[in-house]
Amino acid sequence: MDYNLNLENSNIKKIIINETINKKNNNKKIIQEKVKEKKMRVETKTWGLNDTDLNHETQLNILNSILNKNSEKNKYNSIFISHIKNKISSYKQQDILKKRLNEQSFINFDEVLKLLNSSNMKCHYCSEEMYILYERVRELKQWSLDRVNNNIGHNFGNLVIACLECNLKRRRTNKDAFMFTKNLVITREGL
After folding, report:
1. Which alpha helices (H) appear in the chain, and where do they start and end?
2. What does the alpha-carbon distance between residue 129 and residue 123 come to, in Å, rounded to a whole number?
3. Sheet strand arrangement including 12-20
4. pLDDT digits (tens, 9 = 90+) for 132-153
5. Are residues 120 and 144 in the same domain?
6. 98 domain residue, yes or no
7. Rounded Cα distance, 172 and 154, in Å
8. To the nearest 10°, the Cα dihedral for 21, 23, 27, 32?
9. Each residue of 82-91: pLDDT tens digit?
10. Are 32 and 47 within one domain?
């Protein structure tokens, strides 16, 4: 069986499976196409944002205006604030469920803003741009709080800003060891 992954369009994944029918006709192949569209977040339609509004530079500017408590309110500030508070609430529920919540040192909204700003909304591990607002469900470049010590909750001093992809890949690996593998460059000579 031969698998071929084709990513022609950023919204559509196409998997072509080549399979032989029987031993007599080894040359005949059946091509099955499975087209799977990436799921879009339902709430993004209500935001009324365009591609420019969702780019990294624009989101960084909005983050800075919120951090500086800029009196100029725009339609994005409330969306940003509610999204960040929502995610913090999810982290709190996760800590409660795992019995790791420490009310005194649990991260708060202002601390998250400072972490996002100090990282320039770039992942601690891979240095890729991250997004606060995104269109796709399970967007790999969405921001997340990665716990340095996974035995402790989402407490200030135990967190780094990371993209969802690196956060999920790191699992329980040592933070520094994982960062080393992300920055490792392998070059081949003589081939």
Report:
1. 43-47, 56-67, 75-97, 109-118, 164-170, 175-183
2. 7
3. 2-9, 12-20, 29-37
4. 998 888 899 999 999 999 999 9
5. yes
6. yes
7. 15
8. 20
9. 999 999 999 9
10. no
